[in-house]
Amino acid sequence: MATHEPIPPGATVGILGGGQLGRMIALAAARLGYRCHIFCPEADSPAAQVSAAMTVADYEDREALRRFAADVDVVTLEFENVPLVAVETLTATVPVRPGARALEVAQDRIVEKDFLRSIDVPTTDYRQAENANDVAAAALELGTPCVLKTTRFGYDGKGQVRIDDADAAEAAWAEMGGQIGIVEAFVDFDCEISVLVARGPDGQVVSYCPVENRHANHILDTTIAPANISDAVAVQAIDLATRTAEALDYVGLLAVEMFVTRDGAVLVNEIAPRPHNSGHWTIDACLTSQFEQAVRAACALPLGSADRVADAEMKNLLGDDAARWPELLADPGAHLHLYGKAEARPGRKMGHVTWLKGNPD
Ligand SMILES: Nc1ncnc2c1ncn2[C@@H]1O[C@H](COP(=O)(O)OP(=O)(O)OP(=O)(O)O)[C@@H](O)[C@H]1O
Ligand SMILES: [Mg+2]
User: Fold this and answer.
1) What CATH number labels 189-356?
2) Quick check: 144 and 166 in contact, CB under 8 A?
3) Mean pLDDT confidence for 192-207
4) Which pLDDT tens digit goes with each residue over 264-279?
5) What is the pLDDT of residue 97?
């Protein structure tokens, strides 16, 4: 359905995925007067807790997908590894925004990097590896250190190993369990940034300022908005994200993770076809949050302003960090967000906190 007709408040927004991103999309949708229906395999999900309806079913359960499609007016998603068959099944009945093409690209690191290269968006150099010999050859060609990653289903640095010399290729391949991989030249970066762009079905694009992301143990720890980069780098980063969204004919909120190298080049690391952890600060510090933009884009409403009303710092609350809630609530500058997860496993994203840092320049 290629309609650009607005899906008005009062309608039902379907969301694939039940995690904290779905929860925050649902909260933003509710504020605009929508009902939300969550589809995910897990019972008592953070998103379903705050939504009007839920379907607990497997993503490949066609009957459940058809019933879900009949109940909703549009579908968006918070999880990029939804099987493409689910999206194709739904698309027969309702618009799915973002759609299958963006998912197909984001689900596979080789497809993703090949796509980025095809539209002249720079990435680090890479090779596909189907066996240990390929890994060793790639390590020789690309130089060391380099990184072997699984092509699919990686997150929070899971499914990747660093290779410090070509002799370590065999062990790295074994460690990854022999799945098809990608070997990437290691980027000696100055900082990691991300750019979030929203794009509507009519092609309107709105971009947030680039932000800096600092990781600890391969998981995002802190986002600093705006990133401390030159105007030239910021302009380039926004241009890369915008061109990526346009080339995908993207509808929704797209996150683009990038490296800024020591000589000021910007390389795209990966894209996420959904709201992103590095955009949580926008809830408290921007005129329109990334989650509201995702809803506006999916519902073909005008996009909101991405201007920030304050600079900000966001910190993730992992595992037991969330037990600090009394102290954080007592901090008058802290905006606390908790996701309603019952069990605080180590490294699990339980919530986040945003501090506003004064007026933007
Ligand atoms: N080629 C590289 N050179 C240098 N550092 C890298 C490279 N690839 C990944 N990293 C580091 O590892 C982190 C995680 O990598 P990547 O984003 O590819 O994986 P992920 O598992 O999808 O992680 P996430 O879910 O946090 O986005 C990056 O943010 C970066 O710090
Ligand atoms: Mg990443």
Assistant:
1) 3.30.470.20
2) yes
3) 98
4) 999 999 999 999 999 9
5) 98
Cα-based distances in Å from 102 to 29, 38, 87, 155, 356: 22, 20, 11, 17, 33
Ligand 1 in reach of 184 Cβ (< 6 A): yes
Q: Please check whether residue 37 is in contact with residue 51, taking contact to mean a CB–CB distance below 8 angstroms.
A: yes
Q: Is the pLDDT assigned to residue 15 strictly greater than 80? A: yes
Measured from the CB, is residue 55 less than 6 Å from ligand 1?
no
Q: Is the beta carbon of 147 within 6 A of some atom in ligand 1? A: yes
Closest Cα to atom 15 of ligand 1? 157
DSSP string, 234-247: HHHHHHHHHHHHHH
Distance 151 CA to ligand 2 centre (A): 13
DSSP structure class, residue 358:
S
Minimum-distance ligand 1 atom for the alpha carbon of 215: 31
Percent of the chain topping pLDDT 90: 94
Task: Find the radius of gyration of the CA atoms of the chain.
Answer: 20
Q: Of the bound ligands, which one is closest to the alpha carbon of residue 160?
A: 1
User: Encoding tokens for residue 129?
Assistant: 């590896």
State whether CATH 3.30.465.10 applies to domain 12-96.
no
Helix, strand or coil, per DSSP, at residue 15: strand
Residue 242 phi, psi (nearest 5) = -65, -45
Which of 30, 76, 88 is closest to 300 using CA atoms?
A: 76
pTM of the model as a whole: 0.97
**Domain spans, the chain:** 12-96, 125-185, 189-356
What pLDDT, in 10s, does the model give residues 291-303? Answer: 999 999 999 999 9
What was the pLDDT predicted at 154?
84
Mean pLDDT of 247-270: 98
**Region label for 217, one of left (φ > 0), alpha (ψ between -120 and 50) or beta (otherwise):** left
What pLDDT sits at residue 1? 43
Question: Which CATH number applies to 125-185: 3.30.1490.20, 3.40.190.10, 2.30.36.70, 3.40.50.10900?
Answer: 3.30.1490.20
Nearest CA to ligand 1 atom 14: 157
